[in-house]
Amino acid sequence: MFTGLIREVGRIASVRRSGGGADLSVEAPGMGPLAQVGESIAVSGTCLTVERADARGFVCHAGAETLQRTTVGTLAPGSAVNLERALSAGDRLGGHFVQGHVDCVGEIVGRADEGSTVRFTVEIPAEYARYVVEKGSIAIDGISLTVTEVAGTRLSVAIIPHTLANTTLGSAGRGQRVNIETDILAKYVERLLGRAPGSDISPQFLAEHGFI
């Protein structure tokens, strides 16, 4: 479990493919000395397991499923990645609950300066757009963000200077593909209500079940 607060931007040192998966060597001098074999680290929002670690960084393995369904499959030496270690008991929850289980890959379709912030517009697959609401939470490349607007399959987020300076979003632009994890609470609510994906939840349905 993570919170979407990025602790370090690392760089991919090498990618060695084998057996349908890949071993990723990540340069992370801030995190490497702290990392322990077997622990989980979110690499641009994708939960991976540390297999080796030293003062320079760590090595983790990504399976075929991860390579196919996230942007991890496109990483190459020199690629920048957002890093966060898993939560420990007693840690402060500054972002929102992030599992590191990427739902889908979205695409940045707009970047615009708005005073001291930058607005990003991201398009995501329609089957996941139903889990996104205005003022709700979303993780983009592992970063906990607040949704400012939703229009169909597009959502917008406003990025403050600190986030721009300390994550990979600072250099992100139109056409870039990003890992998306929607708020897990929305998925559990859908499941508990017994609604199949694609079903409509109407005001009448909510009233019948005591939600409004």
Describe this structure in words.
It is a single chain. With 212 residues, the chain is mainly beta. It folds into two domains: 78 residues, Beta Barrel (Elongation Factor Tu (Ef-tu), domain 3), CATH 2.40.30.20; 89 residues, Elongation Factor Tu (Ef-tu), domain 3 (Beta Barrel), CATH 2.40.30. Helix content is 15%, strand content 41%. The strands form two sheets. It has a six-stranded antiparallel beta barrel. It has a six-stranded antiparallel barrel with strand order 7-8-11-10-9-12.
Gist of the model:
The chain is 15% helix and 41% strand. The protein has 212 residues and is mainly beta.
Helicity level, as a percent range?
A: 10-25%
Instruction: Provide a count of the helices.
Output: 5
Rg value: 18 Å
Quaternary organization: single chain
Strand content: 35-45%
